[in-house]
Design goal:
Length: 163
């Protein structure tokens, strides 16, 4: 079983899509750890703010099979591929870490967004502070503490996902 970490985001029907995706992850993987949810401005384009969070789980799926599962989950929530890289989305799920695997540069694993965007790094650090970044060989929490990325535009929110 591999320990994996994901980044989830939505800026279209964001609460409904994230709650649904979180419930599906719990249903399919059992125990899942979620960070707090943060509202952040759209990055790279003018659009509605996103809700973002990180999730941690264990799986027997390979990285390729897990990415396929995540794409199907996105599609089930109305995500259309072929969109511009920076655009509004119903659901965006990225595989951030898969155990201590480093598949760079052929595969974006560990995901480069960990070091690029505060809305990825800081929620990940909440649930994986002692996990080592496979390339930097430093703990995610340490990377977050020393990061020059700003969390100033991140506002913690509470989702009402029902019972």
């Amino acid at each position: 079983m591999a320990n994996v970490y994901l980044s989830l985001g939505s800026n279209i029907e964001r609460e409904a899509n994230l709650c649904s995706a979180m419930q599906r992850l719990l249903q399919d993987f059992g125990h899942v750890v979620f960070s707090h949810v943060y509202e952040t401005p759209a990055a790279g384009f003018a659009g509605e703010p996103f809700f973002n969070l990180a999730a941690g789980l264990t799986t027997a799926l390979t990285p390729t099979a897990l990415k396929h599962y995540l794409r199907e989950l996105e599609q089930a929530h109305g995500r259309l591929r072929g969109e511009e890289k920076f655009s509004a989305r119903t659901l965006d799920i990225d595989l951030l870490l898969y155990d201590d695997w480093n598949l760079q540069p052929t595969t974006n694993l560990p995901h480069q967004d960990i070091l690029t965007y505060a809305f990825v790094l800081f929620p990940l650090a909440e649930i994986a502070s002692t996990v080592m970044h496979p390339v930097l060989q430093r703990a995610i929490g340490e990377i977050a503490r020393e990061s020059t990325l700003s969390a100033a535009m991140m506002r913690r929110v509470t989702l009402d996902c029902g019972a």
